[in-house]
Amino acid sequence: MSKDGPSPAVHDRGGWPTDAPIDRTEHALADWEMLADALVGVLGGSGVMNVHELRRGIESMPPNEYEAASYYERWLFSMETILEEKGVLEPGELDARVAG
Amino acid sequence: MSYHVGQPIRIAARDHEGHHRTPAYLKGKTGRIERVHFSFTNPETRAYGEDGLPEQQLYLVSIPQRELWATYPGSASDRLYADVFEHWLQPE
After folding, report:
1. 8 Å CB contact of B18 and A56
2. For A31-73, what is each residue's pLDDT tens digit?
3. How far is Cα B18 from Cα B91, in angstroms, rounded to an integer?
């Protein structure tokens, strides 16, 4: 614990203090976002990866990337991170397949 | 140690390396038990692929907003409600 108290984490709350207006607009989910949601469900249901691991992966994002990413972009980052950690994916495998 | 509804508590002010569900802004703050939830597997170990046993008791706790935010402009009776696991609570 630092002299200033427990270290805050980027995910502790929905953002940092700001005087800017909060964007409350809704948006329709893109197909890839629904697929990302479904994939997390399948990975959990099949015992490959649980929701706590999903959260740990999200929380491991560099703070500037976390702030810039959308909700499901964070899920994708975490799925790739955790699945590489478990050896389900090779490092760089997704990038290679997208490029190929 | 278990807690009952209405009991004053303090949320432990400790760092924790790795995934945990106690946000920094609650650490060290005082509040009270509002509800005794069920027990759940521990997310601090499940997040690393372990079984999360033994299960940990979860509580709904409330903390005065003015204790959390120095410049909180609302009523002194406003409270923040959060779910906190037993091993993050201390009697107050």
Report:
1. yes
2. 999 999 999 999 999 999 999 999 999 999 998 899 899 999 9
3. 25
Residue A81 · residue A57 · CB < 8 Å: yes
Is B23 close to A13, i.e. CB distance below 8 A?
A: yes
The answer to the question of residue B54 being in a domain is yes
- The answer to whether A67 and A10 have CB atoms below 8 angstroms apart is yes
Provide the CATH number for the domain around residue B31.
Answer: 2.30.30.50
**Is B67 within a domain?**
yes
Does some domain include residue A90? yes
What are the phi and psi torsion angles at A6 (to 5°)? -55, 145
Domain count, chain B: 1
B residues 13..42 contacting A (CB < 8 A): 13-15, 18-19, 23-25, 27-28
Give the per-residue pLDDT at B92: 93
Q: Per-residue pLDDT tens for B31-77?
A: 999 999 999 999 999 999 999 999 999 999 999 999 999 899 999 99
Domain count of the fold of chain A = 1
Chain B hits for A12, CB-CB cut-off 8 Å, are: 23-25
User: A–B: how many Cβ contacts below 8 A?
Assistant: 45
Cβ–Cβ gap A5/B24 under 8 Å = yes
Bond from prior residue into B91 cis (ω within 30 degrees of 0): no
